[in-house]
Every structure is written in C-alpha cells, then in structure tokens.
Amino acid sequence: MVMVAKQAVNEKGHLLIGGIDSVELAKTYGTPLFVYDLSLIRERARGFINTFKELNVQAQVAYASKAFSSVAMYQVMKQENLSLDVVSAGELYTAIKAGYPVDRIHFHGNNKSKEELLLAIEHNIGCIVVDNFYEIELLKNLAAEHDKQVNILLRVTPGVEAHTHDYITTGQQDSKFGFDLLNGQADRAFQDVYKDKRIHLLGLHCHIGSQIFETIGFKVAAEKLIKKMIAWHNDFNFQCTVLNLGGGFGIKYTEEDTPLEPSVYVKEMVIVVKDLVAETNFAMPEIWIEPGRSLVGDAGTSLYTIGSEKEVPDVRKYLAVDGGMSDNIRPALYGALYDAVIANKMNKESKEEYTIAGKCCESGDKLIEHITLPKADPGDILAMFCTGAYGYSMASNYNRLARPAVVFVEKGNQQLAIRRETLEDLVHLDLPLTLEKE
Ligand SMILES: *Cc1c(COP(=O)(O)O)cnc(C)c1O
C-alpha cells in the first residue's frame, strides 16, 4: 500500500505531525498515543460553515461527538462555533464540563433513559432528536412535571441507506432508529407532538450511513424529508424550521478511498432542498448537518512502539505493536483498512511486507493485514494514519490494557488532552472480596 499523502518529514527523517517530531511525541508521552492535528479539524469545520455561508443558507454544523469525545475536543468545537451531538448522559456531562453552550447541544439516541432526558431538560439543551413513541411519552411527562419547554426533531428512516459507493432505497427500512417515513409512523409522531404546548417540533432528522463517497443518497433523503415537511405545511399549516440531514461524509483512509470535498456534499443537498422549496410557499428551513468522522478522522494519528516480530515462513511476517484492538477495534470489527509508516524511518525504502498485530489475546487482533514498510526493528515507532474517529472513543480495557494518552498538536504547539491510564486507574473501581469462603 502506498502512502496516502506526502507526509512532512524533518532532517532526521522523522514524521512531523502539526510541525512536531512524532518520535519526540512518542518519547514525551509514551505509546500507544493518539495525536490530533487541530489545524485539520479547524479547516474542516470552517469548510462546512463557509459552504453554508456562501450558499446563503441558515445552518448548524454539529460535531457528532461519538467519533471522539473529550473535554478538550469539545472546547475545540466550541471555538469553531460548531453545534454538538451527544448520545448519552456521559457525552452530555462531558459537554457541560467543557462549558459547551447548551443551546447548541443536540441529544440523540434510540433508547434515552428518563434520567438522561431529565439531565437534558434540566440543562435546557438546544434540541432533543426524538427517536420513538416511547420517548415522546417520556418527554411529554417530564416536560409537564418540570414545567419545561423542549425543542425536538423527529428522527425518521427515509428508506434510503447509503454505503460508501452506492445507496439503496427500501420500501421499509429495517433500522433500529427512528420513525418510518413511508409507512405512516412519522405522520403519527407528528400528530402526537405538533400541537403540544411544551414540545416544540422544529423539523425532521435523518442519518443515512457512514463513510459515504457519493451525494446521491443524501439528495434522495433530502428530497423525501423536505417533501414530508411541505406536506405537513399544506395539510396542517405547520411550518417546520429545521431539516437535519445527518453525517456520514467519507474520508481517505487509504489510497483506494475516493471521498468528495466536504463542501460538495453540502452544496448538492442544499440545491435539492432549495429547488423543491422554491415551488411552494414553504419557508426555506435551516439545514443542519452532523459530521463526525470527517471532522476528526484524518486529523488523528496513532503512534505505537514496535516490539516482537514473528515470521511464518512463506506466509507472512508479523510485527507486533504495544496496542491493538483495545485502542482501535475497527479492523477487527469491520475489516477497516489503514495506512501506516515507520515514523523514525521516513527516508528509508519500504521493501518489507508485514502484518501489523496488536498485543491482545485474540488472533483477530490485527491492525493492518498487508503493509510494505522499511525493515523494522524493535523500538521503531509505527504511525498509523486516520485513526481520529471511532478509535479512542471505542477503546476498551480488554486484557486490562491501559487506554492511551491523547495529545493535541497545532503549528508547533502541543498539549496533553487525555492522560494515559495508569495501573492504579485500572483497579480504581474494583472492590475487594468480602464474602467469606464456605
Ligand atoms: C454517527 C452519527 C453521525 C456521524 O457519522 P459520521 O460517519 O462519523 O460522520 C451523525 N449523526 C448521527 C445521528 C449519527 O449516529
């Protein structure tokens, strides 16, 4: 596999990230280490926001924070004036700790608990994306009990499912999320809420997939949702003010990936909505989007120290690193592909074929199945690219491995954003046995 992009390298032949020697970062903070280059995150955030400005469309760009959530990352998104999607009390609490403006927090999830909804209501967050009839009931009762006003979107399944290179429309989408748009569920949900005194329906939401490289799925979904909103306007004289089209914009993990410029996805979905609205007396709604991966994915790099090597003659050579599925489960979970380099051998020729293995007790714990690298030695630093989304946020303590540290870099500056877990951290929830032996 070839390198994704020409990487910055210093005079020692070391990989630079955000202007900083990655080998020095590994020395300073230890490995495994997640390094985020904030300049790329800011560039993406501004790209989305400016595209809406150029199109003269009211918008919110919400960071889908399940991709990577931490206090410091939320503060970056706050600096960039993004909105924030959370999906649990834990993410919401992190946002509150980060001082996130509550009116720009949106709460998702297909099974929000009463306690989670209450936390959201008590903090007057901007919007709750309601997923099902049970949630409507919970929310109505809580709003009445606590005498609160609540803004909501209805999440619908539009019968469009987008994949990397194609999309499918299904009469009835088999999804655990949302109200079906086509079989009448969405209309029933609308009837349940649109006259409510405390629940304020802003509009509709959908999220059609992830790591998508084409705009057609977004366009078809946008059309279906806006048509439903126009129909409700015609039939009930109800004006929805928000159309949320979710996230899923693809990024380039390897040379085989061909994502579009982020602005292209936005432009094409906005055109569909504008055109359909233009034929009616329905007021143009705000367009909200929810990028996760495309904001933080390629801004993240994982650094590992290479340890043991095992050769299976005539089959392959395994290089083992000091992390694995415990800090990046995507290869084991969905066969995700990544590219990597040896950060301290950037000027050496790549001529050895390797499989990169993790250190977890699972044969499936491989990070990269096939990669060509310079000849590796123990102590070399492996830099694996594009690990910023769904890496740390899906990390576990499997095998009681401590979760890595996370460092932010930007234009030669650096800071620790999440400290490495210690052995003490690993036992701090454990309680000693008190039951007597029989
Ligand atoms: C996961 C998710 C996103 C973000 O998806 P990406 O592929 O990371 O952009 C956006 N909206 C919802 C509702 C999601 O569940």
Automatic annotation (TrEMBL):
Keyword Membrane: no
Domain Orn/DAP/Arg decarboxylase 2 C-terminal, residue spans: 34-388
SUPFAM superfamilies assigned: Alanine racemase C-terminal domain-like, PLP-binding barrel
Residues annotated as the enzyme's active site: 361 (proton donor)
Residues annotated as binding pyridoxal 5'-phosphate: 248, 290-293, 390
Listed Gene3D superfamilies: Alanine racemase, Lyase, Ornithine Decarboxylase, Chain A, domain 1
Residues binding substrate: 293, 330, 334, 362, 390
Catalytic activity of the protein: meso-2,6-diaminopimelate + H(+) = L-lysine + CO2
NCBIfam families: lysA
Subunit structure: Homodimer.
Family: Belongs to the Orn/Lys/Arg decarboxylase class-II family. LysA subfamily.
This protein's name: Diaminopimelate decarboxylase
Organism: Psychrobacillus insolitus
Gene (name only): lysA
